Amino acid sequence: MVGTGRIIGDGGTVYQVVDIAVDPEYQGKDLVKQIMAELKCYIDSEIPDEAYVSLIADGQAKCLYCQFDFEETMPKSEVMYYKRT
């Protein structure tokens, strides 16, 4: 396997695109874009229209996700997290 991506969700109203990754030896060959295209196909065909689909875009990854119609949520909302110490 050289790349992966997945969508997790509750089966109804909330989903998140997570874990998109490509083996470093295969990066730069548009595999991330291909993975995202497949995930977007699944979103469009299998997830209810009224569901909320989100993702966390680190760094310039937001440029990729914008190509698939994802939009920034700021300033309406911010990403938060809890890290156990």
In summary, what is this structure?
This protein has helices spanning 31-46, 61-66, and strands spanning 3-9, 14-22, 52-55. It is α+β, with helices and mostly antiparallel strands and 85 residues long. The protein is globular.
Give a written overview of the molecule.
The chain is an alpha+beta fold. 26% of the residues lie in helices and 24% in strands. The chain contains 2 helices and 3 strands. It has helices at 31-46, 61-66, and strands at 3-9, 14-22, 52-55. A 3-stranded mixed beta sheet has the order 1-2-3, covered by helices on one side. The longest helix has 16 residues, at 31-46. The protein is globular, with a radius of gyration of 14 Å. The termini are far apart. The model has no long low-confidence stretch (mean pLDDT 94).
